[in-house]
Structure formats: structure tokens, C-alpha cells
Amino acid sequence: MPELPEVETTLRGIAPHLSGQVVADVIIRNAQLRWPIPRNLPKLLRGQPVRNLERRAKYLLVHFDHGTLILHLGMSGSLRILTTSTPPDKHDHFDLVLVNGIIMRLRDPRRFGAVLWHEGEVSRHPLFAKLGPEPLQAEFDGDLLYRATRKRSAAIKLVVMDNHVVVGVGNIYANEALFRAGIKPQLAAGKLSRARCERLAAEIRATLNESIALGGSSLRDYVDSDGKQGYFQQHYWVYGRTNEACRKCGTAIKQIKQGQRSSFFCPVCQR
DNA sequence: CTTTGCACCTGTTGGC
DNA sequence: TGCCAACAGGTGCAAA
């Protein structure tokens, strides 16, 4: 489920339930995620109060006084707030149990997600050290995109999905933002004009922001419901619409592969 | 340094 | 109807 808007919505959903609460226990049912869940987490966290939570790229950070719990939802992960009496599903791999009888439960059928522990500055963790700017922060703008794309022959869609350039732009929103900017995904990044970079940066920001606004409303009860609910309620300009009529000009939407991922575009509206 | 392709894993979908 | 290949929201990593 998780593109950046879903991760952001998840953060907003779980934060009020966790902040300030003391950890009673940590339950690891299956440690084999993308990387093994540290076995000493129960020992590390029992009795510790949760401080603040934040998002960096698609990682969720749960800060404690002595370190940070790093969560990633991968392709199929979700987090819910439940009570301790709720029986786990076979893909419920990890619980953070709080003293007030509430648990934060990670479900992840494909197990591409991660639960890690880091002491000290998260920005110095190897996974975070080389990340580009947040797409919704002022630092990410047309000028940054313009500079980052100079001399790059790779397709603009791949560059926009490159975490070193800007984080958090997943396959759906890369496709959608490129349509909105009128740029075809195969275009060599280095050929984009400054004006088109400005436009693309603006559309990336707008697309993500609008989706967060939608996710926020459609997933209001996310923490105790499926979470996928709101996801497909959005109507996309191009994503998943192969051979369907472009919503602007009626031309059939095309589908191609780029970097082993599907790209969708209108051959008339995007140049 | 950039670019490309693989790997990890399970559940669902679509074509024959 | 049933089977099986292809595909799915991510991303670190190795190799070229």
C-alpha cells in the first residue's frame, strides 16, 4: 500500500496513540523482514516512553530517549492500532505493546518492510546518509531538479524516483506527476528545460499534497481498518489505465516498462 | 560517478 | 472452471 501519502497518513494515524506512552513489551513473531528485526528490541524498549514520531522519505521514525525505532512498510506493509486481545493474522510480524493495553501491529505479507533500531542521529544511519530532500519541503524545487538532472541521460521518470535526487516519489505518483507536467516518462532527464523542471517539481509537490489530503479523509479510520480502502478511491490520470482514454484528449494511454516498473502515459499530452 | 538489473516475498489477476 | 505466468504500492545492492 505505501506510497509517501500513505506513509504520512499512517504516521498521523498512529502518532497520537503512541506519543508519551510507555512500552510494555515488544513481540516479534517473524523477524525475517527485509533485514532481521533485532532480537534485543524487547529488552531495549520495555519501560521506555515513546517520545515524538516523524517521517523521513518512506521511513517512519519512533523516537525514544536512547535511540530510534525505524519502520518501513515496503510494498505490502501496514500499521494498525489495536488492543492486546486482537488475535494476530499470519502476516502480523511485529507488535509494539504499550502499558495502556494498546498495540501497534505491523502486518506485511511480502515482508519487504523493515523494523530497525538506531542509536544516535538517524541522519547518520547508512540508509539515511545519502537521501535527497523531502519532496514537500521548500528545499525541493525546480532549481534543485534542474541541477540534479544536468548531464543525466537516464529517463526522467527514473531520476524522479531516485532517492538521491528526491525521496518519496513512488511509481504511482511519478506517473501521475509526469502526466500533469506534460512530460513523457522516457525523456532523458538532462534534456528538460529549466521551465519544465519547475513545472515538474510543482506537480510532484501538488500530486503528493492532494493525495495526502485525500488519504487523510478516506483513511480517517485507518488505524483500525483495512487501510487499502482509500487507496484506490482516487482516480488517476494515467496510472493503471492502459488502453483507456486519456482524460484530457481521449487518446489511448500507453504502458511501457522502465527499470522493471510499469510506466503509463498519454502519447499526445506528454512530450 | 551513472546506469542497469536483480533480489527479497506472498497474494492477486488475467489470459489461455 | 482451472492453472500458471505475470504482476503488484519499494529500494538496497552488485555489476557493468
Give the name of the CATH architecture of the largest domain.
Orthogonal Bundle
The poorly predicted ranges are none
- Give the overall form: elongated
Please describe the biggest sheet, giving its number of strands, its sense, and whether it closes into a barrel: 4 strands, antiparallel
Query: Termini distance?
Result: 30 Å
Tell me, what is the CATH class of the largest domain? Mainly Alpha
Can you write the helix and strand succession as a string?
HEHEEEEEEEHHHHHEE
Report the strand count.
Answer: 10
SSE blueprint and pairings:
Layout: H1 4-18, E1 23-28, H2 41-45, E2 53-56, E3 59-64, E4 67-72, E5 78-83, E6 92-98, E7 102-107, E8 114-118, H3 126-129, H4 142-149, H5 156-160, H6 171-181, H7 194-218, E9 254-258, E10 261-265
Antiparallel strand pairs: 1-6, 2-3, 3-4, 4-8, 5-7, 6-7, 9-10
This protein binds a DNA duplex (16 and 16 nucleotides) through loops.
If you had to describe this structure to a student in words, what would you say it looks like?
The structure is a single chain. The chain is α+β, with helices and mostly antiparallel strands and 271 residues long. The protein has two domains: 4-124, N-terminal domain of MutM-like DNA repair proteins, CATH 3.20.190; 142-265, Helicase, Ruva Protein, domain 3 (Orthogonal Bundle), CATH 1.10.8. 27% of the residues lie in helices and 21% in strands. A four-stranded antiparallel β-sheet has the order 1-6-7-5. It has a four-stranded antiparallel β-sheet with strand order 2-3-4-8, covered by helices on one side. A hairpin with a 2-residue loop joins strand 3 (59-64) and strand 4. Helix 1 (4-18) packs across helix 7 (194-218). The model has no long low-confidence stretch (mean pLDDT 93). It binds a DNA duplex (16 and 16 nucleotides) through residues 1-3, 6, 32-34, 58, 72-76, 91, 108-113, 127, 151-154, 158, 161, 163, 170-172, 231, 259-262.
